[in-house]
Amino acid sequence: MIKPIMAKSSKPGKKKVQTDKQIQKNLLLWSIAIPALLVLFIFAWQHRAGISYLFVKWFEKDKVEREDLSKYDIRNKELMRRHDDKIYGIDVSQYQGEISWDEVLTIQEEFPIDYIFVRATMGEKAKDTKYHKNWKAIKEKNKLRGAYHYFRPNENSAKQARNFIKTVKLEAGDLPPVLDIEEMPRNQSMDSLKVGLKRWLLLVEEHYEVKPILYSGDKYFADFLEKEFADYTLWIANYNFWIEKPKKHWNFWQFSEKGTVRGIKGPVDLNMFSGDIEDLEALCIAL
Fold first, then answer.
1. Annotated catalytic residue, options 98, 103, 109, 182
2. CATH code for the domain in which residue 220 is found
3. 84-120 CB burial, b ≥16 within 10 A, e <16
4. How does pLDDT run across 77-117, given as a tens digit for each residue?
5. How far apart are CA 115 and CA 233, in angstroms?
6. Is 82 helix (H, G, I), strand (E, B) or coil?
7. Is the pTM here over 0.90, yes or no?
8. Angle in degrees, 0-180, between the axes of helices 48-56 and 61-82, rounded to the nearest 10
9. Residue 239: CB partners within 8 Å, gap ≥ 6?
């Protein structure tokens, strides 16, 4: 009798089980990888300019600096055109190096420069190395000029006032002296700092017989100074691209630190005065 041939059982083998697990694992990886790559691609496309900047900044530093300035030039020009009823000026210090004052006439070849602030002193003893040269050159160009002191919170305020008074000889027609406060105190309270600021302002006002201008950053002024110093002529710095006009209490608005002016190498601070030239001249020391 011939025995029937029995078909071999088709039990799933170990190899097939492993393959199924591998397929599931691969599917899981792709389900994560594809959305992640898509998000990365979208991010890279949206931020391609910034990525390009990062890519070349170590190898083409000069190109990056030119591109940055071009971006700021566009914004600055648009802002000044929107406020063509205002007048504009710059402020300089030793950081601008040697300035070709014969060429310093306009901002971006379009907006006349009507006034210039110059850093004179810093702290108790320091003097800007280009102050005297810049101060004299501006007078020769018949521009309105003003001098400012950079206040160092951890140094004696009376000595700082004397440093400024000894260095700066204001004349009739010059803008009032300026106190620049930007730093936080390290070894005294903010209340103590404000006492020092008031002392500097009073000593300088007594000497020149004109009330000084107060310069500070927008947030610094709002957080610490507004309550007690709001009655001063204010020069406020705020470089935020989303700010399109000065606040009502800003007499001067430093709206950019990336300005382009022929005759000055590198960027320079740009300022807007909230008034016309007659208003600015009325602010100057009486003739």
1. 182
2. 3.20.20.80
3. eebbbbbbbbeebeebebeebeebeeebebbbbbbbb
4. 999 999 999 999 999 999 999 999 999 999 999 999 999 99
5. 16
6. helix
7. no
8. 140
9. 254, 255, 256, 257
Q: Read off the tokens for 192.
A: 């103590």
Four-CA torsion 275, 199, 174, 266, nearest 10 degrees: -80
d(CA 121, CA 164): 6
Note if 182 is an active site residue. yes
For 184-209, the pLDDT digits (tens) are 999 899 999 999 999 999 999 999 99
Based on the structure, what is the number of domains in the chain?
Answer: 1
71 part of a folded domain = no
- DSSP secondary structure, 186-213, as one string: SSS-HHHHHHHHHHHHHHHHHHHTSPPE
- Write out the two tokens for 197: 């600021």
DSSP state, residue 174: S
124 is catalytic: no
Range of the domain at 121: 86-283
Longest Cα–Cα distance in the chain: 138
Residue 43 lies in a domain: no
176, 285 Cβ separation under 8 angstroms: yes
Say which of 91, 128, 180, 269 is annotated catalytic: 91
Lookup result for tokens 């070894």: 187
Residue 74 is assigned to a structural domain of this protein:
no
**DSSP H or E run through 42:** helix 14-46
> Are 92 and 134 spatial neighbours (Cβ–Cβ below 8 Å)?
yes
What 3-state class would DSSP assign to 169? coil
Count CB neighbours of 73 within 10 A: 17
Contact 277, 175 (CB under 8 A): no
Q: Report yes or no on 189 lying in a domain.
A: yes
